[in-house]
Amino acid sequence: MRKTIKVSNITCAQCAKSIESYFDGLEDVDAKVLVTSKKVIFNYDEQTYDESKLGDHLRIIGYYPIFNNEEQLKAKKKDIIDLILAFLLTAPLLWTMFLHLGAPVWVPEILMNGYVQWAITTPLLFYVGRRFFFSAFHQIKGKNLGMDVLVVIGTTAAYVYSIIETLTFKPHGSHMMPELYFETTGVIILMVLIGNYFENRVKEKTSDALQSLISLGAKEARILKDGKALMVPIDQVKKGDTILVLANEKVPLDGIILEGQSYVDEAMITGEPMPAFKKVGDTIIGSSMNTVNTLKIEVTAVGSDTVLAHIIQTVEDTALIKPKAQRIADKIAQMFVPVVVVISIITLLVWVFMVRGGQPLTVAFAPAIAVLVISCPCALGLATPTSISVGSGIAFKEGILYKGGEFFEIANKISAVAFDKTGTLTKGHPELANILGDEASLVYAASLENHSNHPIAKAITDAYDDELLEVSDFEVLLGKGIQGTVDGKKVVVGSPNLMKELKFDTSAYESETYLRQGKTVFFTAVDGVVLNMLAVEDPLKPSAVSVIKELKRRGITPYMITGDQELTARYIANELGIDHIFYEVLPHEKAEKIQAIQKEGKVVAFVGDGINDAPALKMADVGFAVGSGSDIAIDTSDVTLMHLDLGLVIKAIDLSLATLKNIYMNFLWAFSYNIIMIPLAAIGLLNPSLAGIGMGFSSIMVVLNALSLKLFKFKYQTEE
User: What is the pLDDT of residues 293-305, one digit of tens each?
Assistant: First the structure.
């Protein structure tokens, strides 16, 4: 069972590691954390766990699950209350800080009293800052030290040092007040809370696409029980139930139509702009819009089994992707806190024994605290998930679903793209391309073909939009054609071989020309006389030619792999400008052809849509599945193209490159920030309170840079 639970106080990658390591120690449950959207994705055994038990385990380690909107509002309200309390308690301490810094300001004498500052700081540290202690405890327990550990060490050190100074201070000479750092404790907590608040607001924008997906789903369904229609919450509907969907209502769940026919708008799921006509026996997708008539539907999928749930799951899983750069950053982040603590101790010792030169110990204490506070491992942890969340959102709006993490690293290395032909380069369904001879006689072929369910029969009937004639004595001639009586006349529609067998004269028609073009040829004979020749083809997708041209312009070699005969394959390849062709390839041989291209030293992407493409999609370095294809093809691919436009291949590559560049920019900022600011803090150029502001600013910058991806513009546009 899969369940996603929102958690109010996930702030960075170290929180994710704490949660994941805790659940790794439990049986029958696996947890993965989406830092940017503050969610935990659980896969668990329903016999052992349920939603409430998972929530209890999260609370044990100091994280607060949110199961409904009311709890989410409470969590936000709690954060705001903590922020207001932090501001109110820190304000008087900040006032004293200005006097410590030498500013000519009046400060009430009572506020300069160490015991008063102690009384103000205690609730600030242990009540308002309690979240940091909880998180730090579980980070230490899980051996995943993060920012919360640094915050706790820094604030507690300043607090304890100030208490010792207050208790042991003896006025001497002009020095009538102890050097206290209670305000440092307050400012650090206030600034981190402010940073978290703004960071959370910005993070919410990085998961816009996921939120819009989730909002597509219906909240209630009209279920039929004992002849009555009852509105019930969507989670109470079971597989096999019968639901009623009125006109202009959202279809709640996936199902099969039992009664009625209507036009259904599936644009948000399939990308098709025109509503699809649905009748009895047709499948229907949950979250699509019924536009015309009432439909009675048998539910075939609920919960995580629906099409929408699978798409949401894919988008969520994409945010868990970790390119190689992030995996390296994770290892650095694990060592980060211990290294910073050691640097802080060394800083303290250097200042005590070598720098301060008879000045008070506080002169040495301030840089050591500043080193702890200015350091920010959070920025490293946020570098990848924030960028990928934003990139995945942009991709979804274009009709692209990223699934494999490797794609982000491999996209710029792709040197060859192999295409399946049918349904990928071509539309995948035949159309009537040419009528030679008496066009009016198409009525005979269409009337006869209307009684056949063959795809080519549909191509002929689709091309005829007038009234059909009455047919009797209909007969299928397997592998050859069909025959029957149409309007009292003997009509045969069949292949050249059938015409030859029946000794009908077809010499007036140059069928060989059309056969060389990969078209299928049929003749219509009425009462023994051939009246026309019909040429049927699987037409190229409008975007295919321009995509091949663009790939070649970029130095990427296009290949075509097809099971079709050589004549058809070569004609199609010539039309597209593809020089490398594999024809008459059996389904299991497609993967072997991919492997052969890889042995030439090329990084290969494969684009396909059928069940027979699954092995090749898996063998390729990157697999693109056309979304109209089979579930198996989609499941085995790295990227799903939800629309039929092949230009999405180019767009998917371009967007992944932009996302990877954004990730590297995040890392550059995160590393540069820490490399520059830690030495500045160590040499005493940063006040600990200002360091607290810098820590929050660092994480916000990473998230803002990720959001800059929304300004990305696709340069390539499909020429149709």
Answer: 899 999 998 877 7
| Pair 409, 322: CB distance under 8 Å | no
| Opening angle at CA 360, ends 359 and 364, nearest 5 | 90
pTM over 0.70: no
- Please name the residue that has the structure tokens 């042991």: 168
**pLDDT exceeding 70 applies to what percent of the chain?**
82
| Same structural domain, 419 and 435 | no
The Cα 275–Cα 248 span in angstroms is 12
Domain boundary among 603, 637, 671: 637
Q: How do the residues of the chain divide into helix, strand and coil, expressed in percent and rounded to 5?
A: 55, 20, 30
Q: Are 447 and 529 in a shared domain?
A: yes
Give yes or no for a contact between 187 and 94, defined as CB atoms under 8 angstroms apart: yes
Do residues 647 and 435 make contact, with C-beta atoms less than 8 angstroms apart? no
- 8 A C-beta contact, residue 448 and residue 464: no
Tens-digit pLDDT profile for residues 45-89: 888 888 888 988 888 877 888 877 677 777 778 888 988 998 999
Position 94 confidence tier, pLDDT thresholds 50, 70, 90: confident
419: helix, strand or coil: strand
Q: How does residue 242 score in pLDDT terms, banded at 50, 70 and 90?
A: very high
Please report the pLDDT score of residue 311 as a whole number. Answer: 65
693 token code pair = 């502001």
Other C-beta atoms closer than 10 Å to the C-beta of 139 total 24
Give the H/E segment covering residue 641.
strand 639-641
Nearest to 152 by CA among 289, 329, 341, 386: 341
**What string of DSSP letters covers 581-612?**
EE-S--GGGHHHHHHHHHTTT--EEEEE-SGG
User: Among 705, 559, 710, 702, which Cα is nearest to 195's?
Assistant: 702
Question: Is 695 inside a domain boundary?
Answer: no
Query: For residue 604, what are the domain limits?
Result: 406-427+541-637
- For residue 107, tell me if it sits in a domain: no
Q: What is the CATH number of the domain that holds 556?
A: 3.40.50.1000
Residue 287 per-residue DSSP state: T
Residue 352 lies in a domain: no
Is 45 a member of any domain?
no
Going by C-alpha positions, the residue among 657, 48, 643, 152 that lies closest to residue 387 is 657
Q: Which residue in the list 148, 241, 265, 420 is annotated as catalytic?
A: 420
What spatial distance separates the first Cα and last Cα of the chain, rounded to whole Å? Answer: 44
For residues 35 and 703, give the distance between their C-alpha atoms in angstroms, rounded to a whole number: 11
Question: What separation in angstroms does the CA of 560 have from each of 191, 427, 568, 569?
Answer: 58, 15, 12, 8
Q: What are phi and psi of 227, to 5 degrees?
A: 80, 0
Domain boundary among 620, 637, 654: 637
The Cα–Cα gap between 461 and 303 comes to 40
Report the C-alpha gap between 147 and 132 in whole angstroms. Answer: 9
| pLDDT tens digit sequence for 546-560 | 999 999 999 999 999
Residue listed under structure tokens 């995996």: 327
* Contact status, residue 593 vs residue 585, Cβ threshold 8 Å: yes
- Let me know if 635 is a catalytic residue: no
616 and 477 share one domain: no
Query: How many CB atoms within 10 Å of residue 366?
Result: 24
- Please name the residue that has the structure tokens 């709690």: 78
Amino acid at 1: M
Q: How many residues does the chain have?
A: 720
